[in-house]
Hints:
Number of domains: 2
Number of helices: 5
Bound molecules: heme C
CATH architecture of the largest domain: Orthogonal Bundle
Order of helices and strands: HHHHH
CATH superfamily of the largest domain: Cytochrome c-like domain
Shape: elongated
Strand content: under 5%
Radius of gyration: 19 Å
CATH topology of the largest domain: Cytochrome Bc1 Complex, Chain D, domain 2
Helix content: 40-55%
Number of strands: 0
Amino acid sequence: MKKYVIFSVTALVLFACGAKEVKTENTSTEASKPVVDGAKIYKQNCELCHGLDGKLGANGSKNLTVSELDLNARIAMVSKGKGVMMAFENILNLSEIKAVAEYTMTLK
Length: 108
Ligand code: HEC
């Protein structure tokens, strides 16, 4: 019985991967475009307080160019918000939050 369950799970995983591959092929016309653009998300959601270069500090926001937070802490910060900064978990999806957090790491 246990063996059977393991086999089913393996088959499911293989099937899921196979399905994904097919989907990628079908949308190959958009393959050259990045799925989520961290810089664009930043401009739309973060520039207001943090400024285009991350140094604005409007509304008491932190200067992102000197932030010592690592990527995971930034993802948490953007998801949950803090003080004046709103939570973005209901505004952006997880890959968008990750992309924008990665983008803030490039602001130096
Ligand atoms: C309404 C203004 C506002 C917006 C919009 C905003 N922030 Fe913030 N942000 C703040 C404030 C205020 C803080 C400081 C919070 C605190 O520590 O009390 C902060 C802190 C941060 C920090 C932590 C910096 C540190 O070193 O502690 C990160 C990272 C950050 N913001 C990223 C972002 C990103 C990415 C976005 C866009 C998705 C964003 N913020 C949008 C106001 C804002």
